[in-house]
Amino acid sequence: MMESRLSRAWQSDFLWSFRRSPTAVVSFFVVLVLVLGAVFAPLVAPHNPFDPSSLNLMNGFSKPMQPNAFTGEAFWLGTDDQGRDVFSTILYGMRISLFVGFCAVLFAMVLGVTLGLIAGYSGGMVGTVIMRIADVQLTFPAILVAMLIFGIAKGFTPVHLRDQMAVWVLIFAIGLSDWVQFARVVRGATLVERKKDYVQAASLNGRKAVGIMLRHILPNVVGPVLVIATISLALAIIAEATLSFLGVGAPPTQPSLGTLIRIGQGFLFSGEWWILFFPATTLLVLALSVNLLGDWLRDVLNPRLR
């Protein structure tokens, strides 16, 4: 029984399309390797870069794959000015970037889908107000909205909790700046679905509006939502890196890829290129792979291309 189910799943249109797309396969495995490396960073990383007792300032500015002139230690991707292994800092930095990206997209998805369902199903003044707010927010660049929200939210955070709450404030800021795309797509799909016979029948049978939206309409708008979520993940990771690079994101005690890039940028013109190059390359590869997966998913779930 289990083998037959696995066989049917393997022969499904979804996995068949995945196997036939080299871009999707390569992107998936790149994302998988990076995510696993971040999740299991304490086991994979040669050093804990944020443990002061394990640092040796004599290892500072070690070049990639070359023994340090003072200690004789060699590091795959070199070290930064404090002697921290760049490879280890990238793994630990990806943990923050991926965590912020996933949580921000999840928050934006829940908020956007909820408001989109309400706006599309209820209509009237409620729907108009929600979509006008969305239209106003779309007139501003998302990164500026995130910076504004981050600044306001951080201002309401007690001073002694700002470093501990910085990541959560960052998630709130990015998520609140990215809900509009979900809401617009879900509202459009809801306007189409609510006129269909099965929704009218459920309404005549006495089902409440919340039940109709969650049980009947929501499953039919999941496809577009998954595509937006995948693409938004790459944008959220880039937004987090941008905010951290500008110094308004993750705190120095919890550096993300953006923080590492900001640190490395200060040493670029003094010859220590690897401190910037490897974190920036990791961010580029991660965002590109997630975007390519999103493009493939959009094509697979688009009925016009089947």
Question: Could you name the key traits of this structure?
Answer:
about 300 residues, MetI-like fold, globular
Give a summary of the structure in a few sentences.
The chain is mainly α.
Question: What secondary-structure arrangement, pairings included, does this model have?
Answer:
Layout: H1 2-10, H2 13-19, H3 22-39, H4 41-44, H5 86-122, H6 124-138, H7 142-155, H8 162-176, H9 179-193, H10 197-204, H11 209-217, H12 222-245, H13 257-265, H14 274-301
Helix pairs in contact: 3-5, 3-14, 5-6, 5-8, 5-9, 5-12, 5-13, 5-14, 6-9, 7-8, 9-12, 10-11, 12-13, 12-14, 13-14
**From the 3D coordinates, which CATH architecture would you assign?**
Orthogonal Bundle
Based on secondary structure, the structural category is mainly alpha
The SSE order reads: HHHHHHHHHHHHHH
Total DSSP E strands: 0
* The CATH homologous superfamily: MetI-like
CA radius of gyration is 23 Å
- Give the CATH class: Mainly Alpha
**Dominant shape:** globular
> Please, what is the average pLDDT?
85
Strand content: under 5%
The CATH topology is MetI-like fold
* Tally of helical segments: 14
Low-confidence stretches: none
Summarize the structure in words.
The protein has a single domain (87-301), classed as MetI-like fold (Orthogonal Bundle). Helix content is 69%, strand content 0%. The chain has helices at 2-10, 13-19, 22-39, 41-44, 86-122, 124-138, 142-155, 162-176, 179-193, 197-204, 209-217, 222-245, 257-265, 274-301. The longest helix has 37 residues, at 86-122. The model has no long low-confidence stretch (mean pLDDT 85).
